Amino acid sequence: MAVLLVASMPALYFLQTMLPDGGLSLAFRSSSLLDGSWWPGVLSVMIVHGGWGHVALNAFMALAFAPPIARLFPGAVGALIFLLLYIMCGVAAALGFGLLHLNSEIVAFGASGAVFGLMGAAMRLLRQREAGPAPLTNGRFLAASAAVMIVNAVTGFVGYVPGLGNVLVGWEAHAIGYAAGALLIGPWFTWFASKPDRFDSRPDVSDPPV
Fold this sequence. Notes:
The chain is 58% helix and 2% strand.
């Protein structure tokens, strides 16, 4: 499923370039939360991008962070569960961004909010994935998250990412998507993850003397 997700990004962008408006109608407009026209832009925002560089960056990040999460949810049902996690992170990122820019006509597009959600989830799986997500208070998770958010804030301050043309950085959507993924992977692992069977010996059981 991770490979299909990554492959879908350039494929969908290729189709986007053929649209009369270049895909602008599929973007998410912050003020749509006020006038009630936010649907379905809150979903379609994840399938449109601002250029090949924008697509390549999101696809590269998805390739890095999607596999460890997708492996937790095998099979056709697992693929749907993984995709639901991805979509929910993207929706949370779009809605959060819209609420922060409620009176603006700014238009958002791209899968980066959802991809950052995968990153947030993956960061909680820094230890062995079979052990489940690390606690939100785990030192390694907090340190990694702090580093990610510092880089995210810096790119947001600069406003643009080199090589991506005139695409503005929606750093707020990134942060919200990251937080959504970090929070959702806990219940997702508990409810849906495929957990390998283990031989579990009680502490008071010992091997017979040799």
